[in-house]
Protein: Rhodanese-like domain-containing protein
Amino acid sequence: MSRIRPDELDERLDAGDRPFLLDIRPEDDYAADAIEGSHNVPVYTGLQRGDDSGLRKRLGEIPDDEAVVVVCKMGIVAKRATRFLDEQGYDATTLAGGMSGWNGYQTGSLGYKIRSLWWKLR
Structure:
């Protein structure tokens, strides 16, 4: 399963290589803070419990002919969605660190810098 770091996603977005950004967080979280141009399919709670039926029912909202980057809170539940989408034939990737990682990257936080170093060493 693949993942993309926030800095890598930002570079792609700047270059005009825009994947379909699938934000699976609850609607309230998405409304409070989201990556510009992302699409909310709020299936986080079900996936957190191991239930992929909500995502399965909403596959029609996700294009199958372009790259998909899955976004959640911290990147953990997005891995489940990414795995499921991969099994369905999608070209799916998890945003490492989720919105927490994205926001840390945007602000240049120390926590993000430490995580980023760890991601690069893996």
Summary: The mean pLDDT is 93. The longest helix spans residues 76-87. Helices lie at 6-14, 27-32, 44-48, 53-57, 76-87, 98-107, 110-121. The first strand starts at residue 2 and ends at 4.
